[in-house]
Specification:
The strands form 2 sheets. Strands 7-6-1-3-2-8 form a 6-stranded mixed beta sheet, covered by helices on one side. It has a two-stranded antiparallel sheet with strand order 4-5. About 25% of the residues lie in helices and about 15% in strands. The relative contact order is 0.22. With about 220 residues, it is an alpha+beta fold.
Length: about 220
Amino acid sequence: MLFSRFKTHLPTPEEALEGRAERAFAVPDRHTVLGNPLLGPYPDGLEIADFGLGCFWGAERKFWQTEGVWTTLVGYQGGHTPNPTYEEVCSGHTGHTEAVRVVFDPAVVPYTALLKLFWESHDPTQGFRQGNDAGTQYRSAIYTHSPAQHQAAESSRDAYRTVLRTSGYGDITTEILPADTTRPFYPAEGYHQQYLDKNPSGYCGIGGTGVSCPVGVAKADG
């Protein structure tokens, strides 16, 4: 019963698993498709964006296929347990969602274009699930790295909410929060990184609503 509860209820910091001081596994050095470092250092001029849109296997592929994206990696974000494992996140006892970190060149692909891809690649009205994948780790989320990103994310949400409602969908449940020290990104295990490149026929739970997100609804300079 406790396991079931935490698949539909975010734990408080007191309820969350204790975690550990250091990561319990190694992370590969380089992206298997793009060839660039996963954990950095990243070249000057690049920016970071963090998104949660369901199972991170298919979500990561959406972003690495985008021109102007320098590297991607999957991990856990928005929870309480330091350095969690996949099994711990899936238990619901850490509070994390499955996330994709996108390192991109804003001169090639603006943040607003990544937001459009994010919104259109999943159903952001489903709460603690995405399609058949149920649990708090599948919730929709945007973790922002600057005030400009935050404003752009909220503006795009408001614009997309309008067209989704017109199309018969419920309200957007996406959490939009700063990617600050209280919400660190913890890289996932090596076998999750670029999973669908290593397993081309593997599971991909990503599927959008079919409703187009308005373009140019926000500015993300700075």
